[in-house]
UniProtKB/TrEMBL annotation:
PROSITE patterns recorded: HTH_LACI_1 (PS00356), HTH_LACI_2 (PS50932)
HTH lacI-type domain sequence ranges: 2-57
Entry-linked InterPro entries: HTH_LacI (IPR000843), LacI/GalR-like_sensor (IPR046335), Lambda_DNA-bd_dom_sf (IPR010982), Peripla_BP_I (IPR028082)
Keywords assigned by UniProt, alphabetized: DNA-binding, Transcription, Transcription regulation
Entries under Gene3D superfamilies matching the protein: 3.40.50.2300, lambda repressor-like DNA-binding domains
GO molecular function: DNA-binding transcription factor activity; transcription cis-regulatory region binding
Top-level taxon of the source organism: Bacteria
The keyword Transmembrane helix is annotated on this UniProt entry: no
CDD domains cross-referenced by the UniProt entry: HTH_LacI, PBP1_LacI_sugar_binding-like
Name of this protein: LacI family transcriptional regulator
Keyword flag Transcription regulation: yes
Length: 341
């Protein structure tokens, strides 16, 4: 089995440089050297001796990933391809940095905190937490934390978050619909009512509201209550009766859009002939749907890259970093929007 010294001899660089590349501490290593070392690692089939590394560093080399959501433990979480893409990207980048990923879904802060206490983590990623729990996590957990797609109720609460500008993304999508001639636009997301929307759904609804308000129009909001166990009932009881009230439907996620398009099709309602539909996330669902759905794409790989970079930076400095990082979104036009003018 090849060792770090073998890799160093093969590439003509120092063992320290090889170690830095393996462990992700390569900000001072040239791109050419990094590529040379990584190629040698594959060519010589290098496998890290994690047991020795743990003993040497006195650390667990574990990064925790917590998905906190009241519905997380009951819903078919991985039905949404966004979650699978994100976790796969994070696991890949954590592995390349020489760490292990521990993943768990929880329904509340207390459940998550107990798990974290048992894991002996070196860093933590928290996604889906409520705005009220951000401060709880920071006070309870001593290791560096990166929050994902989180919004604090108190705008003064300092925390490290990696996400996207959900409000601006929804604003830009609504402007796109307006330019296509749509003035009766509805936004839909899960919740007992639009007043209960929080986090990304709230931010996206506000983006829709802002764009409509600027042209003197009122946005329509439709909440999908948890009482609807399937979208067939939702479409029949809520959307179909009100379909004449709007010309475009903005879905909070690709998964929601695809499910609604499918139910519309069964009822003879065709997109975009009878109604236009757009969505958010830009997952494969939007690309492979018929018709292809116009969606606001977010770069999941770039999100994961930023999360791991900042988390490792915090681990190296032994401090929580306070920073807000926003990954850019871009509108990917499909075939689901009808031009009205």
């Amino acid at each position: 089995m090849a060792t770090i010294k073998d890799i160093a001899k093969h590439t003509g660089v120092s063992p320290t440089t090889v170690s830095n590349v393996i462990h992700g501490r390569d900000n001072k290593v040239s791109p050419e050297t990094k590529l040379k070392v990584k190629n040698a690692l594959e060519e010589l089939n290098y496998a890290a001796n994690m047991g020795a590394r743990l003993l040497a560093n006195h650390g667990s080399r574990i990064i925790g990933m917590i998905i906190q959501d009241t519905e997380a433990v009951t819903e078919d979480f991985f039905d949404n391809p966004y979650h699978g893409e994100l976790i796969q990207a994070l696991e890949s980048k954590i592995k390349k940095a020489g760490y292990f990923m521990m993943f768990h879904r929880v329904s509340n802060f207390d459940e998550g905190a107990k798990l974290v206490d048992m894991w002996n983590l070196e860093g933590l990623i928290v996604s889906g937490t409520s705005s009220n729990d951000i401060l709880k996590w920071q006070e309870r957990i001593s290791v560096p934390i990166v929050f994902l797609d989180s919004y604090a109720t108190d705008k003064q609460t300092p925390f490290l978050n990696v996400g996207i500008d959900d409000r601006n993304g929804a604003y830009q999508m609504t402007k796109y619909l307006l330019q296509k001639g749509h003035e009766r636009i509805a936004f839909t997301a899960k919740g007992t009512s639009s007043d209960t929307w929080r986090g990304v759904d709230f931010e996206r609804s506000e983006g829709v509201r802002q764009a409509m308000k600027e042209v003197g129009l009122k946005a329509n909001f439709i909440a999908i209550s948890p009482t609807y166990k399937n979208y067939k009932n939702f479409v029949s009881e809520i959307l179909e009766p009100s379909i004449k009230e709007f010309t475009a439907l903005f879905c909070s996620s690709d998964l929601l859009a695809v499910q609604i398009v499918s139910e519309f099709y069964k009822k003879g309602i065709l997109v975009p002939r009878d109604i236009s539909i757009v969505s958010f996330d830009g997952t494969p669902y939007s690309k492979y749907a018929t018709p292809q759905i116009t969606s606001m794409h977010q770069d999941v790989s770039e999100k994961a890259e930023q999360i791991i970079y900042l988390l490792l930076k915090g681990i190296d400095s032994k401090n929580n970093i306070i920073e807000k990082v926003e990954v850019k979104t871009n509108l990917v036009e499909g075939e689901s929007v009808k031009t009205l003018r």
